[in-house]
Amino acid sequence: MFPSRRKPAVYGREGAGSCRLLALLPQKCSVFQLFFVTLLLGFASLLWLQLSCSGDVARRGRGAAAPDPLKPCPPESRAPWAEDLSWGPHRLALLIPFRERFEELLAFVPHMHHFLSRKRIRHHIFVLNQVDHYRFNRASLINVGFLESGNDTDYIAMHDVDLLPRNEALDYGFPEAGPFHVASPELHPLYHYKTYVGGILLLTKQHYEMCNGMSNRFWGWGREDDEFYRRIKGAGLQLFRPLGIKTGYKTFQHLHDPTWRKRDQKRIATQKQEQFKVDRDGGLNNVRYQIESRTALSVAGAPCTVLNILLDCDASKTPWCTFS
Predict the structure, then answer these.
(1) How far apart are CA 313 and CA 323, in angstroms?
(2) Residue 200 backbone dihedrals phi, psi, to 5 degrees
(3) How far is CA 296 from the centre of its chain?
(4) How confident is the model at residue 160 (pLDDT cuts 50, 70, 90)?
(5) pLDDT reported for residue 18
(6) pTM of the model
């Protein structure tokens, strides 16, 4: 048994002369023993601080009696780019449309955090988790992510959660000249048609606003990026793609297993006819949603923010937002 928690301060002030206070030790005190006991007590004190500070999740929200006033936790370590000017002035909002694909998310977040950090790109990962009962709407989630990403980011990546870059030469830098399609048709493992802009697309926030974001009419899987290609052209923007990448269709790792996770490709009511039309009115200006919660998480040491999003559907305009 060790002395009570208040004794380390006494030992520290009196040094070896405090051996007479160690009556609980079974043998004559030595400097080494005193050092060892002090070390153990110091470790116990740090552990107590960690468990009793205001960041202790176990002490919150479980209906228990209110605890004593909590001490503030030690401040979190700052991001590596906090004071390093070599990381550049721009900051990327990585927008991840998401629903029930946790296996892919656990691989994606740490992979992208370390990939972008090696390239010295300031970034914030936003997981846009659709928690309503409507069909999945990738475009609306990206619109929400854009609006909720904050003023400290100045460009976005519309990024699929199942597509991991493997070639370090891929450029995720600030796309000042125009939208930059990282997952270009000659590199994407599945989609190779010329007007394809899905998978991974970078835009400045100014350029995304010029397009009025993406159309909110696309419930279910597919076609929203084809419509967005027309918006890019309609805004007078030039589309850019990677040059000099020689890894071809092996440039990305595709995590999706179609036999395990079926895509929602059903076309309901007039959806099949409407999917090829250009939405000239809707987009960033009229996306309807609520943020149910905003949670900061760390996945294998990689930080991200999860937005639980409730989308809203005007059934008179898009009755295919539900299967009923």
Answers:
(1) 13
(2) -145, 115
(3) 9
(4) very high
(5) 45
(6) 0.73
